[in-house]
Fold this protein.
Amino acid sequence: MVFVGSWLSGFFIIVTDAWMQHPVAYTRLADGSYQVSSFSGLLLNPWALLQYAHNMSGAVITGTFVMSAMGAFYLLNRRFEEYGRIFLRVGVIGGFICSVLQIFPTGDLHGRYLAKHQPITTAAMEGLFQTEKGAPMVLMGQPDVERQRIDNPLVVNKVLSFLVYGTTEAQVQGLNAFPREDWPTNIPLLYFAYHIMAGLGTIFIAVMSLAVLLLWRNKLFETRWLLWIIMLCLQIRRDG
């Protein structure tokens, strides 16, 4: 019941936030305020469903890293080893599944939805100042808002166009396509927060993929260096 209650509460919280990001099922009153016209329309907001799936898979990833790290701690210290194996097995399998879901389909679809309905936000997150056909994805770099460029960029050509529109030749709108007053107020913060999130997600899926492979080959419980990495990832996950 605690699980059901917390996840149901999380759904209504995210539904409210999603409506602010992408309003649906509403009418505008004479005084300029908004009124929800359909409760079912509010609950079935496509933005909310994608955001909820993405958010809760992230919550499960946190839980699985806690469980896996505890199991790794037990095995490294030769204590409660039977429980440690159970914690690792369940945590690694669950963490791998939800790490994959975090990227596809939930992250991929939510990113496409964001690009469609909030292209300015997408451009700021990606550090895309100029509209480009075959837009690259910036892996690393520092945004220079005044000069409207990315300093010291490490990019993968045409990947952003593919991720957003499914083709490497698609044109992606940059910040220059929109009035300056509509830009996010703190582009560097948004850019770095997004890239840190994406980077950590990549690390987590890499660790869990390797852990699942070693579990399948019955070598995980004896691979001490990976057990240490799993414990370190718990600290990174908590701080992130």
About this structure: The mean pLDDT is 93. The first strand starts at residue 26 and ends at 28.
